[in-house]
């Protein structure tokens, strides 16, 4: 069930500022009434006005709490009660001579910034009319006409200037949102293109993994054709054909699962299972290159993560290790669980990375591979994915001895 703190997260800074100012108005108003040297009759009237303000403010925030999606409509409805409240406060505290006219400025400023230019002009207009009604056309008996005109001018100045700032802020926010969406789309395209590069690297292993059962199927079919009356042989070979076809189907399905675009979906997953899925993709490549893969998995490996994204990270690193070893080496994968995080280490006995390149390997488009062998995006994308999981990735390497990548992932990532 949603808690009070979770409900508060629905509201932005301006919404909380509105609430704070209402509370401040209530407290400050009652303190002013208590300490101000006004007549007892006026005090009673002012107390009633502030009680009215308290009651409708409480109702307003009860409705906002129950219907947070209606917050803008509710604030705009309360605007008219706020204007009436200020009108009566000014009337009871000296009319045009009352300093409470300053409350109009606050109301105009808040609504101009919150709703924009049109609302700012509207609130400035209503405030000007209400303030004008305080003294009618006899303003000269209370204040100079120049002062009265200056106050009204500032109503409009505040409404228009803050309204324009609000419009610009909204326009800039839309532009940033559009830019962010474009950036995310570009990132997704880069991730997908890097997947295609990875599939290219897996091609030899996939071909080998499909050819083996195909050869077996071909031999079985040839034997069945040569012995059409041998029912026992036919039945035995048909089972072998079926096993071979299932093996091919599984290989193709793994490849399709990896290749197709995935939307980000964080859920409770086991790191060990993701690594097993990744290893299954490279098994044939390891056999072809005669690389030994050793696993040391922790018994506890559950975290909150996007499994498809992590699968790509692990595949990028393992394929880099295969490229670095070339033939006849060893790759070790270790997972360790502690209280807050999972630690995944992938080490190899490859050629290693020169010291001068260690700080560059996560830079986009940095690669030491020959043209056509790599895009220089694999590790950059991997770093981005790990950061999205609030984790970290580091590398240690020594020339001619190998490299070790260490990934630390919090068990409860925010996504």
The largest sheet has its strands arranged as 2-4-5-7-6
Which residues form runs of ≥5 with pLDDT under 50? none
Total beta strands: 7
Helix content: 55-70%
Question: Which word captures the global form?
Answer: elongated
Q: How would you state the average pLDDT, rounded? A: 82
Q: Strand pairing plus helix content: what structural class?
A: alpha+beta
- Order of secondary-structure elements: HHHHHHHHEHEEHEEHHEE
Number of helices: 12
User: How much of the polypeptide forms β-strand, as a percent range?
Assistant: 5-15%
Describe the structure.
With 415 residues, this protein is an alpha+beta fold. Helices cover 66% and strands 11% of the residues. The chain has twelve helices and seven strands. The chain has a five-stranded mixed sheet, with helices on one face. The protein has a two-stranded antiparallel ribbon with strand order 1-3. The radius of gyration is 36 Å and the shape is elongated. The model has no long low-confidence stretch (mean pLDDT 82).
């Amino acid at each position: 069930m949603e808690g009070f703190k979770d409900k508060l997260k629905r509201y932005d800074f301006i919404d909380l500022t509105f609430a704070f100012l209402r509370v401040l108005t209530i407290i400050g108003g009652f303190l002013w009434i208590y300490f101000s040297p006004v007549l007892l009759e006026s005090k009673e009237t002012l107390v009633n006005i502030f009680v009215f303000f308290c009651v409708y403010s409480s109702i307003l925030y009860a409705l906002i709490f129950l219907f947070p999606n209606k917050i803008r409509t509710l604030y705009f409805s309360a605007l008219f009660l706020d204007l009436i409240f200020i009108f009566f406060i000014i009337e009871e505290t000296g009319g045009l001579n009352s300093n409470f006219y300053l409350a109009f400025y606050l109301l105009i400023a808040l609504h101009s910034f919150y709703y924009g230019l049109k609302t700012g002009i509207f609130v400035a207009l209503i405030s000007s009319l209400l303030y004008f009604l305080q003294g009618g056309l006899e303003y000269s008996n209370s204040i100079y006409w120049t002062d009265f005109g200056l106050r009204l001018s500032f109503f409009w100045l505040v409404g228009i200037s803050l309204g324009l700032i609000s419009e610009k802020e909204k326009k800039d926010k839309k532009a940033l949102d559009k830019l962010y969406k474009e950036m995310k789309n570009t990132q997704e395209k880069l991730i997908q293109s890097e997947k295609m590069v990875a599939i290219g690297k897996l091609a030899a292993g996939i071909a080998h993994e499909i050819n083996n059962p195909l050869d077996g199927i071909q031999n079985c079919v040839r034997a069945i054709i040569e012995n059409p009356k041998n029912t026992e042989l036919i039945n035995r070979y048909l089972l072998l054909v079926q096993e071979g076809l299932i093996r091919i189907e599984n290989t193709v399905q793994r490849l399709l699962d990896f290749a197709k675009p995935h939307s980000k979906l964080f859920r409770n997953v086991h790191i060990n299972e993701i690594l097993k899925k990744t290893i299954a993709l490279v098994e044939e490549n390891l056999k072809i290159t005669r690389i030994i893969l050793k696993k040391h998995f922790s018994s506890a490996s559950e975290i909150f993560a996007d499994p498809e994204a992590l699968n790509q990270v692990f595949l990028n690193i393992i394929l880099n290790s295969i490229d670095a070893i070339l033939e006849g080496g060893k790759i070790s994968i270790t997972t360790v669980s502690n209280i807050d995080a999972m630690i995944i280490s992938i080490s190899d006995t490859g050629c290693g990375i020169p010291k001068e390149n260690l700080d560059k390997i996560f830079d986009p488009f940095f690669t030491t591979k020959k043209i056509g062998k790599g895009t220089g995006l694999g590790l950059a994308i991997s770093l981005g994915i790990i950061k999205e999981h609030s984790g970290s990735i580091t590398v240690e390497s020594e020339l001619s001895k190998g490299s070790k990548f260490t990934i630390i992932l919090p068990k409860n990532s925010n996504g």
